[in-house]
From TrEMBL:
The keyword Ligase does not apply. The chain crosses the membrane at residues 38-64, 76-98, 140-160, 202-224, 236-257, 288-313, 334-354, 397-417. Residues 198-418 form the ABC transmembrane type-1 domain. Keywords: Cell membrane, Membrane, Sugar transport, Transmembrane, Transmembrane helix, Transport. Gene3D superfamilies: MetI-like. This is Maltose/maltodextrin transport system permease protein. GO terms for cellular component: maltose transport complex. Belongs to the binding-protein-dependent transport system permease family. MalFG subfamily. InterPro entries: MetI-like, MetI-like_sf. It is a multi-pass membrane protein.
């Protein structure tokens, strides 16, 4: 509520409130005679300086130097302190700017004749305005320290030389700039491994995901045909692979594809070919097995998704196509497929991005193996499983962080452009 004073205080100067609030949070509010708000800002800034001044000083020194005395300074701890200090400073600067803007804008209102409402009215109005922010504040702080903090740590780690030979506290970690990115595409062992793994990751993502989508669509269209009986039973059977936990299915398949005692070789390949195939020792056959398993694991979700969409397509479309003499292929191409893709395109894109980082099947089936001479990754490692190997087996933490950044950029760029091109995200009136 706005109140106009009978005596407009033309002498009230917004610039004075601005300067005072810059000097110390709350002084501008006190100048505006907003005593409760001013005291609150004073207490917040004083408490922040008392509680965090030393920590921020240590954090900023630590993130700049990463320590100076080997055996005493722990570079990784200092990096963590530095990130936390930067986050605290960001929050403090935001509140400080809000304090300055509040003091200046309120001083302008007072100069123009505005008079502050009573205390209870002010509290009620402030509560109504800030209620949505109060509800989202816990989630926002959790987002900062659970998502943003680890992300910043991983990004900054990519610009250091943190590895087995530069591991604190015995040794210090140093900032190396873009050296890790340069080594990844110039040093022979890193270059060969990176491009080999990256190529297989792309092939794996495209082939496995496309096959599971194609199989799911084919089965959904087939079961949705009017001539098919016992639809509920068939749908239940086809969705059963989805009901079994993925890691259980992968471990079962790993046993079935075992070169020595697996059922695939013993009961199928040897009777047909006279000898088994090296499913777990030859990268080519291991890749084929992985694609087959992922198709089996992934198609039930796509099948269920497409089944729901197909049932929502009006039969009048197909009746009109029959009148016009449309063939089955034409009805599928011009009616079924556009409707299905329009409704499910975002989820299909997620299928591709998920398989790009599908660590579970790669690791559980054969730990990314078999081993390949001259490479730091196994024959079926994709980028994310290679990051795991570098982190926990080789202690190449900085290089693992470098590859993680590349993975994040690839997935983000792909998802961004695909979502922008997807008709599902356009306004209906602009189609």
């Amino acid at each position: 509520m706005r109140h106009l004073s009978t005596k407009i205080p033309r002498s009230h100067r917004p610039r004075v409130a601005l300067v005072l609030s810059i000097l110390f949070a709350g002084l501008g509010q006190l100048y505006n005679r907003r005593y409760i708000k001013g005291i609150a800002f004073l207490i917040i800034q004083a408490s922040f300086l008392i509680a965090f001044a030393d920590f921020i000083n240590l954090g900023l020194w630590g993130i700049c130097t990463l320590g100076t005395i080997p055996g005493t300074d722990h570079s990784i701890y200092l990096l963590v302190y530095g990130i936390l200090a930067l986050l605290l400073l960001t929050i403090a600067i935001f509140l400080y700017v809000m304090n300055v803007l509040d003091a200046y804008r309120q001083a302008q209102k007072i100069r123009d004749g505005w008079q502050a409402p009573r205390l209870m009215e002010s509290i009620r109005a402030g509560y109504e305005r800030s209620f949505p922010y109060l509800l989202t504040m816990p989630g926002f702080f959790m987002l900062i320290f659970v998502v943003i903090f680890p992300l910043l740590f991983a990004v900054l780690l990519a610009f250091t030389n943190y590895n087995l030979y530069h591991s604190p506290p015995r040794n210090l970690v140093d900032w190396v700039g873009f050296d890790n990115f340069v080594q990844l595409v110039t040093v022979p062992i890193w270059k060969q491994t990176f491009f080999t793994v990256f190529s297989w990751t792309v092939v794996w993502t495209v082939v496995a995901t496309t096959l599971q989508i194609t199989l799911g669509l084919f089965l959904a269209v087939l079961v949705n045909d009017k001539r098919v009986k016992f639809k509920k039973l068939i749908r239940t059977v086809l969705i059963l692979p989805w009901a079994v936990p993925g890691f259980v299915s992968i471990l079962i398949f790993a046993a079935m594809f075992n070169d020595t005692f697996g059922a695939i070789n013993r009961d199928i390949m040897i009777p047909l070919l006279g000898e088994g195939l090296p499913w777990l020792t030859d990268p080519f056959y291991t890749k084929i097995a992985l694609i087959v398993i992922q198709t089996w694991l992934g198609y039930p979700f796509v099948f269920a998704l497409f089944t729901g969409v197909l049932q929502s397509i009006s039969s009048e479309w197909y009746e009109a196509a029959d009148v016009d003499g449309g063939t089955r292929w034409q009805k599928f191409r011009y009616i079924t497929l556009p409707h299905v893709l329009y409704a499910t395109a975002p989820l299909l894109i997620i299928q591709y991005t998920t398989n790009f980082n599908n660590f579970n099947i790669i690791y559980l089936f054969n730990q990314g193996g078999p081993a390949v001479r001259g490479q730091t990754a196994g024959g079926t490692d994709i980028l994310i499983s290679w990051v795991y190997q570098l982190t926990f087996n080789n202690q190449q933490y900085s290089m693992a962080a470098t590859i993680s950044i590349i993975i994040g950029l690839i997935v983000s760029i792909f998802a961004f452009f695909q979502f922008r091109r997807t008709r599902s995200f356009q306004e209906e009136g602009n189609l």
